[in-house]
Amino acid sequence: MITSEFPVLQDSSNESGPGDTVSYSTLSVSELDDVGDTKGKRKRGRPARSTAASKKPRKSPVEKLGPLRGKKTNGVAQQNGEGDPTTLFEVVRLGKSAMQSVVDDWIESYKQDRDLALLDLINFFIQCSGCKGAVRIEMFRNMQNAEIIRKMTEEFDEDSGDYPLTMPGPQWKKFRYNFCEFIGVLIRQCQYSIIYDEYMMDTVISLLTGLSDSQVRAFRHTSTLAAMKLMTALVNVALNLSINQDNTQRQYDSERNKMAGKRANEKLELLLEKRKELQENQDEIENMMNSIFKGIFVHRYRDAIAEIRAICIEEIGVWMKMYSDAFLNDSYLKYVGWTLHDRQGEVRLKCLKALQNLYTNRELFPKLELFTNRFKDRIVSMTLDKEYDVAVEAIRLVTLILQGSEDALSNEDCENVYHLVYSAHRPVAVAAGEFLHRKLFSRHDPQAEEALAKRRGRNSPNGNLVRMLVLFFLESELHEHAAYLVDSLWDSSQDLLKDWECMTELLLEEALQGEEVLGDRHESALIELMVCTIRQAAEAHPPVGRGTGKRVLTAKERKTQIDDKNKLTEHFIMALPMLLSKYQTDSEKVSNLLQVPQFFDLDVYSAGRMEKHLDSLLKQMRFVVEKHTDTDVLEACSRTYSILCSEEYTIMNRVDIARSQLIDELSDRFGHSVEDLLQEGDEADDDDIYNVLSSLKRLTAFHNAHDLTKWDLFGSCYRLLKMGIEQGSMPEQIAVQALQCSHYSILWQLVKVTEGSPSKDDLIALRRVVKSFLAVCQQCLSNVNTPVKEQAFMLLCDLLMIFSHQLTTGGREGLQPLVFNPDGALQNELLNFILDHVFIDQDDENQSMGGSTKNNLNNSPIYYNDYGDIIKETLSKTRQTDKILCAKTLILSLQKLFNELVQDQGPNLDRTSSHVSGIKELARRFALTFGLDQIKTREAVATLHKDGIEFAFKYQNPKGPDFPPPNLAFLEVLCEFSSKLLRQDKKTVHSYLEKFMTEQMMERREDVWLPLIAYRNSLLTGGDDDRMSVTSANSSSKASSVRSKKGRPPLHKKRPEGDPRTEEGMEGSWMMRNDTLQTPGALQTPQLTSTVLRENPRQAADHVPDQDSSEAGSEPDYIHKRGLMEDDAEPIFEDVMMSSRGQLEDMNEEFEDTMVIDLPPSRNRRERAELRPDFFDSAAIIEDESVSCYMFWSCIYRNHFNCMLSASSEFYLFIFFCQGFGMQMF
């Protein structure tokens, strides 16, 4: 056993039970080719030191690596003047020598003088931790390990916080690899003799155990990694011993079973002696592993540092896979199961990968059965982990469990994974698709299924699987994204998804005997899925929303794409006309089928002499256009005609003739019907209206993708619009289509003008057309029909952006006559449209804003849900343009809301009312938009406080100076921005505040003066909170001293004197700034909506008292029923799911259902606060919370329209956002 001089946990430690002992009933090892002399070994324990005089001088193990080496002073290697490596640390760091050579040199040195060799090894671990100190020979001989570690801790330089294992860059990444390799090679080279000398291993294990208990993070991290790699190497040695012992036992039994005359007694004695020797070695290795496991692992697997916990879990997974007979049992699996609840994704990821390595081996499933039953629910729930990498690995692990035993997962477990195929995160969806393929779409007996399909007359055996795919898609009630489903299954089920012959066979042919007939819904779903598979094969990239963009295809992927495109083209050139003929009356099916030609390789028509199939397709498309007026169908036809008319294909002329014939017929029909409608006037009947509308819909759909200006559709549409404005009797659908068609006509005329060399007459003619159309659209804004107003508004926005001053950029100065600048009347009409049609109650859209605002005070989240992205984008754009002006805009909007509240409730506001709380909540969210970089927003925040203070003291109370100013309560709103001030700026703002205060104000303590008191306190407190400690964290369960908390480094460096952003420079820069915006008084404005107060979970979490000394968050005492787990301390865990807290059970209750254990109270809670992640993400907070859009937008666009949008380009940006409102609203 290890002596008391080297502190380790003994068997009586309450940190581990008897089940934690590494016991081997069948221990083994590889052949012992070169076993050292193990007879006459000393009893375990540290031997007496030999005197220095009796020792022979020796070289350092690394001094053999080059001619120039450093000298030794008191046994410590010194750096020579040439900069050559002279220590083990430098050799390993540089990695220029083979690791086996380095270890062999050290072993040679150890044989000469083991004290000096061990001193080199000790200093190696110390230096790998980043410590500048060194252990000297006197310290090694005369001091205990605890004293040495304490001395090294005092010499440790923690100012930087970095040490070799955490330093960035490829050099240090390579060092980590070399460090681990050195330990593995060291044990491998010493496994036959030195590790059994009861000296080297005792010293190393005791040192690592002490370092792993250090308060210094670098010591703890480095020693834990070294100990875990040392344990892995010892496990490999133990495995080899076990194998060798089994071989020896078999040889002994074989020899013993021989007849007495043939039995070799000397050989039996040798085998017995060898078996005894192996058993002794096995016992020593077992003792070493138990010392490492109990002394280091059971404490560090729940360390406060996530990386340390991850190292422990990663290595225990290696042990269980490498030596499953000894480690793959519940005594060790429990640590992985507990750590599945770790709050850091890095640790949970290591757990899952460790389990994947185990579940990959089918032979290990019986040993994992109990673990699977206990922790299956947790593993399945981790498929919804908030860390996508963890979720992906959890799905893969569930797939491995399914492959090993389908009975292990219930239907509910499978359904929890099924819906993830619709995830927007592609790796998660692909992993779920692999699971779905294994569960539902894998063919169990391909040969039998192919024979059955041939007997039934089918060309493909995938008929049943295709039906199952359709059924799965239809039963996914919450999802309707066929493209996502296809993309999820693409990697695992390509053979099924590319079986277009089977799909068209099911659609075109009648069901055979024994086959279920496809219903209408099933046919629609199958067509939609089929089109998605065609798109995926032709484009070879995920659908929109999956992935960051199109990646460059490899040569193999490009070849596959070309082959797939040729295959689908050859098949659907013949099949598509038949499908269109069968479903030509079904608009949904036809609109999907008409997308197929867009993915054709159109050269196949001419190269394969398939023009007759092209004629069939054009014929069916003409029938579709004549029979349908649905917009989706007509637009699909228009796009298909446009692709078929591409100039690079030889079929262009044939298609162009068919298209021109179709447009001629539609145009003639439209012209005659318009004349009839205009002549009939108010007496027009439904047939006249239908004839105009049906023709106009078809022409509008085609005009979007085709240049139809030669048919002069603008004239007829303009006449219809003018008649509707003058008579007020035009049907709204005709007016909407006429507006859209006229818009397309103008755009095509602009294309011709920009592409050619237009004359002055051409520009004047186009300007006249645009001007007349803008006037018509402006008149339509006052139309009684809402769809007409919406269409006119969006077209106005489009045209004003297109014909803005940007039209003349890029060398197009000649187009200056086409630039339009909207007048003030048009701007006001556009703004009034937003106020009247966007910020209204969804249940009462016909009411004006002013009439519904009071009732909507608590319903404002609907505005944020609809337009939150536009609000954040506008805030971002204004902040990028001018931070100061943006800050002034925010404070001005809050001031305006405060003025309106004073008008409604009077000067004596109820500070606890929902209205005041709503303004404060809006201010809090405005404060979050300033982000975390206080240096960048320093001047803007200070300016905001300056304007707020001036507003609060702008008016004196008419009752006298003893009464508070009317706007004093606004300071309570301003408190929300105090946290965004730097410490020195808080003093400056407080000094500015005192300029407005009298001595009487400073002494008042009545309730009406509480806003002033609260604001002063927010400026005077928290000044010292900006500095963070950089002391290292610790989490040892055995340390009795008070641990220093891990903090963050200072956020900002001290600025040099004279910097304009220092305290003095800041005061001069914002105190004396000339205001560009005046603080308003009591403005007469409509009442505005407010926010709905909702508890902020992050804010609530901040009020939870610290529980460092208690057992907060630890598991309750579990009832010991099954004996699955022995007594041990539990890891720290929390809920880490993507789903909301309301959808999950309490973690303690869930954990109690999956594991029945009896755990003692944890002693490793002093550093619990360090595991708490930083959730302060302003963007995420704004995403999750509702905010009053109308407060912000009305104040910005009403009060700062001239300031923020003075330039025409900014005005059109404003129009763009307004159009976005309309598009999302309607």
Automatic annotation (TrEMBL):
GO cellular component, one term: nucleus
UniProtKB keywords: Cell cycle, Cell division, Chromosome, Chromosome partition, Coiled coil, Nucleus
Subcellular location field: Nucleus; Chromosome; Chromosome, Centromere
Comp. bias (Basic and acidic residues): 1097-1106
GO terms, molecular function: chromatin binding
SUPFAM superfamilies reported for this sequence: ARM repeat
Bias (Polar residues): 10-29
Chain spans, region Disordered: 1-84, 1023-1068, 1097-1119
Protein function: Component of cohesin complex, a complex required for the cohesion of sister chromatids after DNA replication. The cohesin complex apparently forms a large proteinaceous ring within which sister chromatids can be trapped. At anaphase, the complex is cleaved and dissociates from chromatin, allowing sister chromatids to segregate.
Family to which this protein belongs: Belongs to the SCC3 family.
Protein name: Cohesin subunit SA
Native species: Denticeps clupeoides (denticle herring)
